Amino acid sequence: MVGEIDWGTVGLDRADPAFKRAAEAYTLIAEKAGGYPGIGAELPEMLARHGLEQVQAEEFRTLERGGSTVATALSLTFERLRERCREVEVPEADTDRARALAEDPAVGVYGPSTWTAWGRRPALDPGQHTGH
Fold first, then answer.
1. Which of 15, 30, 18 is nearest to 110 (CA)?
2. Which pLDDT score is estimated for 125?
3. What separation in angstroms does the CA of 84 have from each of 25, 81, 111, 120?
4. Residue 93, SS3 per DSSP
5. Cα–Cα distance, 68 to 111 (Å, whole number)
6. In the chain, what is the straight-line distance between the N-terminal and C-terminal CA atoms, in Å?
7. How confident is the model at residue 129 (pLDDT cuts 50, 70, 90)?
8. What is the mean pLDDT of the chain?
């Protein structure tokens, strides 16, 4: 069993280009640093590729009101990345707008998805030894 957070699902319950650009900036910044913030959805295929059988997965995502714990953590993440956002050409006004929306109780905020994937190792053939 493995689990991972997928930041590609962060969003709002409404269209807002500034918020979308700020959220996408997180992905760009993470990728530039060697991370892979959208790996969650790929976990099932990764397990199957490594020989596991009966692979299954579950994705969990919440919609919370602005100002909730998840939304506030997201707002603080935008603030923390403010300087780096400029490096990927996301204007400070977009960061400010994204933070304001994440703190607004009238706005629904989708947090990152949590992925869990699992599978089984193939059964050993009767003639195989485990090495023990």
1. 15
2. 73
3. 8, 5, 21, 41
4. helix
5. 10
6. 24
7. low
8. 91
- Which of the pair, 26 or 129, is modelled with greater confidence? 26
Residue 113, pLDDT > 90, answer: yes
Burial call 96-105: b when 16+ CB within 10 Å, e when fewer: ebbbebbbbe
Q: Would residue 17 be called left, alpha or beta, if left means φ above 0 and alpha means ψ between -120 and 50 degrees?
A: alpha
Question: Which residue is it, tokens 């996408």?
Answer: 24
Backbone Cα Rg of the chain:
19
Nearest to 109 by CA among 122, 124, 98, 95: 98
Locus of tokens 């490594």: 50
- Check: CB of residue 37 under 8 Å from CB of residue 18: no
Q: What is the pLDDT of residue 70?
A: 92
In this prediction, residue 83 has a pLDDT band, given cuts at 50, 70 and 90, of: confident
* Distances, alpha carbon 111 to alpha carbons 6, 13, 36, 114, in Å: 9, 11, 17, 9
Q: Which two tokens mark 39?
A: 């790996």
Residue pair 59/42 in contact by the 8 Å Cβ criterion: no
111 near 64, Cβ under 8 Å? yes
